[in-house]
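Aim 2, interim progress: modelling of the 6-O-phosphono-beta-D-glucopyranose-bound target.
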Amino acid sequence: MIIEKELEDGFKYLEIKNAHAEAKITLQGAHIFHFKPIKKEPILWLSNLAQFKIGKAIRGGIPICFPWFGKHKLDPSLAQHGFARTSIWKLVLSEELEDNTTHIILELTSNLETKKIWNYDFTLHLAVTIGEKLDIEMTITNRDKKAFEISTALHSYFNISDIENILIEGVEGCRYFDALSKKEELQNEKLNFTEEVDRVYFNISKNIDLVDKNRTIKLEQEGSNSLVIWNPWLEKSKTMSDMEDEGYKTMVCLETANALEDSQIVGVGESHVLGVVIG
Ligand code: BG6
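Predicted structure of the complex, ligand included:
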């Protein structure tokens, strides 16, 4: 079942329910803000103070960072993580498949507004399959007459029992850039959390496990060389109006990305695919 819903101020989203799971996706940002397999805890985290407002990014779920991840390289006045997460996308396909999964495709094409910020012609397609697992594939196509450079992320917020209970497996041996100390470091062991973490890991393996007390969430990544790992901890949470002070305890971001040195050049007529299967 796919239902088109609208909040009071005209904020539109799709609610999907099938034999495997339920999910919610907004048209602004093609933002999946809920995914829950049947009889299981939600996999994605959503802030209790998340705001659903036109032009504002939602705190939780899976914001899409495009055409740049983080701050713009040259112009810090431009929106952090680019404009895809606050642009209105178009639903181009929704179908229920024979295996009871649901397939949705959303599209964002360059327009006068995006070209004022980033002067290139492009198409983004976000293909989402909702089944026992959540399968996301973003295809970025260059429709311009010149190549462009992008950095991207599927900025997934995961719902966890407690930040101090979890372990990230698959990052051992990876080099990372620590955005807090501005230094490069090497991750020798599996990652656990005792303080704020804001890092970009490089040469990341395809499979990452988020091991929690009573379950393991698995990420199977495609087209991604970096993984961003973020938890704001207490002090930073206090500075965010859309996050409760203690909100950091039940979330962690593992972001399937091509960030910093992994930025991609997409040639004329070429496409770049970034994807993740979560379950
Ligand atoms: C992470 C960054 O990807 O996103 C952090 O590494 C940033 O530095 C976080 O604070 C949240 O960003 P925003 O723009 O959604 O508040």
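The helical segments are 112-117, 233-238. Residues 114 and 187 are 38 Å apart (CA to CA).
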